[in-house]
Amino acid sequence: MWERFSYYGMRALLVLFMTAASTSVNPGLGFSVGVAGAVYGLYTFFVYVLALPGGWIADHIWGQRRAVFVGGCIIAAGHFAMAGPLIGLPDHPSFFLGLVLIVIGTGLLKPNVSTMVADLYPEGGARRDAGFSIFYTGINLGAFLGPILAGLLGEGFNWHWGFSLAGVGMVLGLVQYRLGGRYLEGVGILDEPEEILKQRGRKAISSISIISVLVVGGGYFLLEWLSLEVVASLLGYAVIGVVVVYFWYLLRHRDHTALDRKRLVVIFWLVLLAAVFWSGFEQAGTSLNLFASEHTNRDLGFAEVPASWLQSVNALFIIVLAPVFGSLWIFLAKINRNPSIPYKFALGLLGLSAGFFVVAWGAANSVGTDGVSPAWLVVTYFLHTVGELCLSPVGLSSVTKLAPKGRVGQMMGLWFIAAALGNLFAGLVAGRLETTSSAELFEFVAILVAGAGIVALLLARPVKRMMGDID
Question: Is the pLDDT of residue 469 over 80?
Answer without folding.
Answer: no
